[in-house]
Design goal:
Rossmann fold; 7 strands; 12% strand; globular; binds NADP nicotinamide-adenine-dinucleotide phosphate
Amino acid sequence: MKKILVTGGNKGIGLAIVQKILETENEAFVYMGSRSIDRGDASRNNLLKQNSSFKGRIEVLPLDVSNDHSVTEAFKIVDKRCRADGKKLYGIVNNAGVMMEDSALEDVLQVNVYGIYRVSNKFIPLMDEEKGRIVNITSAAGPSFVSTCSEKQKDFLVSSDISWESLESFMDKCIDLRKSGGDFSREGLGDGPCYGLSKAIANTLTLNMAKIYPKLKINACTPGFIETDMTRPMAKAWGKTPEEAGMKEPSFGTVAPVFLLFDDSVGHGDYYGSDALRSPIDRYRSPGTPPFTNKY
Ligand SMILES: NC(=O)c1ccc[n+]([C@@H]2O[C@H](COP(=O)([O-])OP(=O)(O)OC[C@H]3O[C@@H](n4cnc5c(N)ncnc54)[C@H](OP(=O)(O)O)[C@@H]3O)[C@@H](O)[C@H]2O)c1
């Protein structure tokens, strides 16, 4: 049995990943992380209506990734289950994310970066040390952001030697800069200094995690441009339908994450495009173009 935790599993890409995992692996069991039990239960019940073989293979796990207490309580539940059935956790999909370009940078970082750090560090002790996998759902907004940074900031954001402590002080500096109305471009920090910045840091964190846990397979990927509650307002603002805006349906967003969970050929500490091919973290790579082959 492969037990997999998917954060933010109650809707959008996370929900599609939950469904795809259960369809792909007959032996998979999913902890559907959801910060609202009601929304999680409703989504689980919908999945069960669609496919009766999912019965007994999904547990809704109350989990707010921005809250230490919530993560600890979720850990206690999964720990108890793992002790009871003697099974380790096979995978974590750090999918929960927010995109609020206008809101406080710290709120976005708390979910998109600290959420990954908090959940991974808490749950890694429950993981299968030899086979365990972590998939961080970041975004092409990360590499696109880095491509607009100064060479100095680029070097920082693509280094696999950056510690969590350095990343934290970098985030603190960015939060202070934002609060004081400072000029990000003067600091060599490029376009999209909220969501894009958070996803760039999440990619750097993936490099750092891969170094710390060499036996696990830890990678990041973008799901692609997918129609969800997060992106629908963008299409509306552009006066287009989601399809006209180039958005794909949520099942398309599962290709890279599910590949990273189960395929034998996946790397470690790498970032993948929505076509499940390796991509650089300092510039955008279009799906369909040759994969990135260097190592950071
Ligand atoms: N859609 C795209 O085109 C696209 C592109 C690149 C990357 N991504 C990334 O893909 C991931 C999923 O996004 P999506 O498009 O599916 O967005 P979505 O439909 O808005 O879903 C986001 C999910 O994250 C959850 N979430 C938000 N804050 C949370 C928190 N503090 N704790 C736990 N869960 C939390 C939400 O829960 P609630 O229901 O409680 O709000 C929801 O389940 C995100 O990391 C996003 O950045 C999306």
